[in-house]
Design a protein that fits this description.
Number of strands: 20
Number of helices: 15
CATH topology of one domain: Aspartate Aminotransferase, domain 1
Largest sheet: 7 strands, mixed
Strand order of the largest sheet: 1-10-9-8-6-2-3
CATH class of one domain: Alpha Beta
Structural class: alpha+beta
Radius of gyration: 23 Å
Bound molecules: pyridoxal-5'-phosphate
C-alpha cells in the first residue's frame, strides 16, 4: 500500500495528456521565462490548478483523499490533511478546532509564534506553564506532567493542552502520561510536532503524538521528512474533535489554489519515509553518533545529550546542540563565525549554544567540515562563559488576552519608559521564534535588560515595529 503515490501518479498522467488549457495558472504550462529556464521547465509544466482527475485540497474525494489516507496510516492517525502553508496553518487549525473564544488552553511559554497567532485567531485564553529548564545549557526543555496537573487543579475549566514534541532542541515530554491524564479529565491534547516528522520511521526515535493517542498533531514534513518547504501535514484522531469542524477551519487557513508541487512532494516523501526510512535513519544515527563522539573530544566544546539534564524525559537524537561556553563565545558569535569564515549554515543560535538539524539529506563530508571548523575555532578561541545565565528571566505576567491586546490601541515609547506597561507587540529572538514577550503581558526591567543584551549580541530580534529596536509598542491606558 505505502509504495503507492496516488497524487504523484495522477500528476504524471496529467503531464502526459496535452490538455488545451483555458484555466489558471496563466502560464498555461507553456510560458517559460528566466526563472523556469534556470530551475527547469518542468516546474511550469507541472504547476497546475485543481481539476477532476487531480482532485481539490479544499474538499478532497479522489487522489488527494487517497494520499491523505496513506499519510494517516503512516502516522497511525485516523485522518491526515495536507498543508500548503506549513505547520503554522496546522497549529492555527488545531487551536481553532479545539477552542472557541474564551476557552482556556494550557501551553508552555516556549511555544512557536504560530501558536501565539493561533490564540489571536481563535480568541482562546492562554494558561501558560513553565517548561523545564536545563540550567547548564540555558535552554528550555519539555513540560512535566506535574505542571499540567497543577494547572488543571488550579483551573478545572481547561479545554485543551498544547505540547511541543520535540522542542527545537530535541526535548521530548512524557506525552503518553500527559495524554492519559488529559483524556481522563476530558481535555483535548494538541501537539506541535513541527520538528518530529521523522519519529515513526525508526525505533530509536520517540513515539509520535497521534500513535500515542493525541487528538491532533501538526508535522513539518518539509523540516525533517524531505518534502518541499511549506509542505506539512495535519493529523487527527477522531473522538474529541469533530472532523467537519477541522475541515471548516482548514478552509479558513488555507488557499483555494493549493500547489500541486508542494502536495506531490508530500505524497512522495511519505512513500520514501515508510519504505526506506529505517535504512536512511539507521545510517543517519550512525553518523550523528560518530559526530557527537568527535565533537566531545574537542576541548571547550560540548555536544548535547552528553550533558542534557535529568529533567529531560526523552531526546530526539537528530537535533545537534553544541554548547560553546568553553570557547568563551556566545552561540550568536559561533553561528556568525561558522557562516562567515567556514560557509556553514547552522539552524539557530542562542546565548550559549548553536543547533544543527540532522536529516534525511545529510552526508558525512558535511559533518567532517563542521568538525574541522569547530576544531579550528577551539584553537582560536578560549574562555569560559559559564557565568552568563539569562534563563533566570521570569515569565511576564499576562494582563490582557493576546486577541484583546491585538485589537487594542497602542503607542510606541522608548524601551526604558515601558517598564511596568502592557506590551502591544510580541517580541521574538529568531530563530527559533520563541517569544520573549507576548502582546498583553507586563513589561519588566529584567526583560528590557535582556533585550539590550540581545541587541549587543546582534541577535535577530523580530516582532518590534521599531526596526531600530529603541522603542516598544505598548497598550494605551493604565492596566493594574
Ligand atoms: C516549534 C515550531 N512550531 C511550528 C513551526 C512552524 O512550522 P512551519 O515553518 O512548517 O510553518 C516552527 C517553525 O520553525 C517551529 O519551530
Amino acid at each position: 500500500m505505502q509504495k503507492q503515490t496516488p497524487l504523484f501518479d495522477a500528476l504524471k498522467n496529467y503531464h502526459k495528456t496535452e490538455i488545451v488549457s483555458f484555466d489558471v495558472p496563466g502560464h498555461k504550462k507553456r510560458f517559460q521565462n528566466e526563472f523556469s529556464d534556470y530551475i527547469g521547465h518542468k516546474i511550469i509544466e507541472l504547476d497546475t490548478n485543481s481539476m477532476k482527475e487531480l482532485d481539490i485540497l479544499n474538499n478532497p474525494t479522489g487522489v488527494i483523499r487517497e494520499a491523505h489516507q496513506l499519510m494517516a496510516h503512516a502516522y497511525s492517525a485516523d485522518e491526515a490533511f495536507f498543508l500548503v502553508n506549513g505547520t503554522t496553518s496546522g497549529i492555527q487549525t488545531m487551536v481553532m478546532s479545539a477552542c472557541n473564544p474564551g476557552d482556556k488552553i494550557i501551553l508552555p511559554r516556549n511555544v512557536h509564534k504560530s501558536a501565539i497567532n493561533a490564540l489571536i485567531l481563535s480568541g482562546a485564553t492562554p494558561v501558560y506553564i513553565e517548561p523545564e529548564v536545563d540550567e547548564i545549557l540555558g535552554i528550555s526543555l519539555g513540560v512535566s506532567i506535574e505542571k499540567i496537573k497543577e494547572a488543571v487543579k488550579k483551573d478545572s475549566d481547561i479545554k485543551a493542552v498544547f505540547i511541543i514534541n520535540p522542542t527545537y532542541y530535541g526535548a521530548v515530554s512524557d506525552l503518553k502520561e500527559i495524554i492519559k491524564f488529559c483524556h481522563k479529565n476530558e481535555i483535548i491534547v494538541l501537539v506541535d510536532e513541527a520538528h518530529g516528522a521523522h519519529f515513526p520511521f525508526h525505533d530509536s526515535f520517540p513515539e509520535n503524538a497521534t500513535a500515542l493517542g493525541a487528538d491532533m498533531s501538526a508535522i513539518s514534513i518539509h523540516k525533517t521528512g524531505g518534502s518541499l518547504t511549506q509542505s506539512s501535514v495535519l493529523l487527527l484522531n477522531t473522538g474529541m474533535i469533530d472532523p467537519q469542524r477541522v475541515k471548516m477551519m482548514l478552509n479558513l487557513t488555507q488557499t483555494t489554489s493549493a500547489s500541486y508541487l508542494l502536495m506531490t512532494s508530500l505524497d512522495v516523501a511519505r512513500k520514501t519515509l515508510v519504505t526506506e526510512g529505517e535504512k536512511i535513519f539507521t545510517d543517519l544515527l550512525d553518523m550523528i553518533s560518530k559526530f557527537r563522539e568527535e565533537l566531545n573530544s574537542i576541548p571547550g566544546i560540548k555536544c548535547f545529550k552528553s550533558i542534557l539534564s535529568d529533567k529531560l524525559y526523552d531526546f530526539d537524537k537528530t537535533k545537534i546542540g553544541i554548547n560553546l561556553n568553553g570557547l568563551g563565545l556566545t552561540g550568536f558569535e559561533g553561528y556568525d563565525i561558522l557562516r562567515e569564515k567556514y560557509n556553514i549554515q547552522m539552524e539557530l543560535a542562542d546565548t550559549h549554544n548553536i543547533l544543527g538539524i540532522a536529516s534525511i539529506g545529510d552526508i558525512w563530508e558535511d559533518y567532517q567540515k563542521l568538525i574541522d571548523a569547530l576544531k579550528e575555532m577551539a584553537y582560536d578561541y578560549k574562555g569560559d562563559n559559564q557565568t552568563i545565565d539569562f534563563n533566570e528571566l521570569e515569565s511576564p505576567e499576562l494582563i490582557v488576552s493576546p486577541r484583546d491586546a491585538f485589537y487594542s490601541e497602542t503607542e510606541s515609547i522608548p524601551l526604558l519608559a515601558a517598564i511596568g506597561r502592557v506590551s502591544g507587540e510580541s517580541i521574538m529572538v529568531y530563530p527559533p521564534g520563541i517569544p520573549l514577550l507576548i502582546q498583553g503581558e507586563r513589561i519588566t526591567k529584567d526583560l528590557i535588560d535582556h533585550i539590550y543584551f540581545l541587541k549587543e549580541q546582534k541577535a535577530v530580534i523580530t516582532g518590534m515595529n521599531d526596526k531600530t529596536l529603541n522603542n516598544i509598542s505598548i497598550l494605551k491606558g493604565e492596566y493594574r
